[in-house]
Amino acid sequence: MTRGKKMGAGQDLRALANSIIDSYEMRVKTVNTLMGQAYYFLKSFQTELEDMIVRLRDNLAKAGSLRKKDFERMISDVIECRSQREQEAEHSLKLFQEQEEEMVSRLRKIVLGGSRSGLEDIEAIKEDIST
Known about the structure:
Elements: H1 3-63, H2 68-113, H3 118-130
């Protein structure tokens, strides 16, 4: 194989790797968008829940079947649990975004760097993915 063919093959492989990374990056962005939409859907659910709580409080007050203090105590448990899950989901979303952006960056460095240590980098990435 001549030097020109080797250079062409290397460039072809680099172009293929870039194409794969671009595709991966687009999928990460799509997943991030979907996760963001799900998060905002949950936020709208929160608004509806708060409206239902107000209506329920008013209905119970009219019927005289429950004291406001008791109602607030019961509802606070529900709201606290939902709020905690919301914070966990938000943290997970941010963590996912950061990790995937870091992965894309690392892959690009390997492809663009073209160094011999690229294999070591790939092994490190494989280990990160499996954990």
